[in-house]
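chain below, 161 aa
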Amino acid sequence: MKSRHKKLALIGGALAIIGIIAALVLNALNSNIALYITPTEVAAGKAPKDKLFRIGGLVKEGSISRQADGVTIGFTITDTEKEIPVHYKGILPDLFKEGKGAVAQGKLNGEGTFMATEVLAKHDENYMPPEAAKAVDDAQARAASKHVSPSSSGDKPKASY
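prediction:
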């Protein structure tokens, strides 16, 4: 009877240790997850408060400004529909340029400025992060649907055969 209780105690202890390890791993993973949010979603108030997230899109032309210290940079990320100002202190990737795709990770401050802790840039001419490319495409599609112009003549369109 004693050996049976020992086996049950060992199995119970092993299960408890496995449960604790699983809880610690899941907690570590949860704290390191950074959601991807578009500038349009940030402007709509969908950004998480006091939590890291990623924002991506195109670096707006003419928006990069450098401070005198040489490592503090301000720029604007846009999905062509909305724009979010970004401040970053650090060294930017070599491929970071105006008009090109970029993703920044950080938090939104109270004034609506994204305070980036990390900035990632595209790795070749044809690449934009998938989330950023989708955000830009979606914003352009919404803009195109808003600007549909009526036909200049009152005639019905002719059918083509």
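Strands lie at 35-37, 53-59, 65-66, 72-78, 83-89, 101-108, 114-121. The longest helix spans residues 2-32.
thats it, cya
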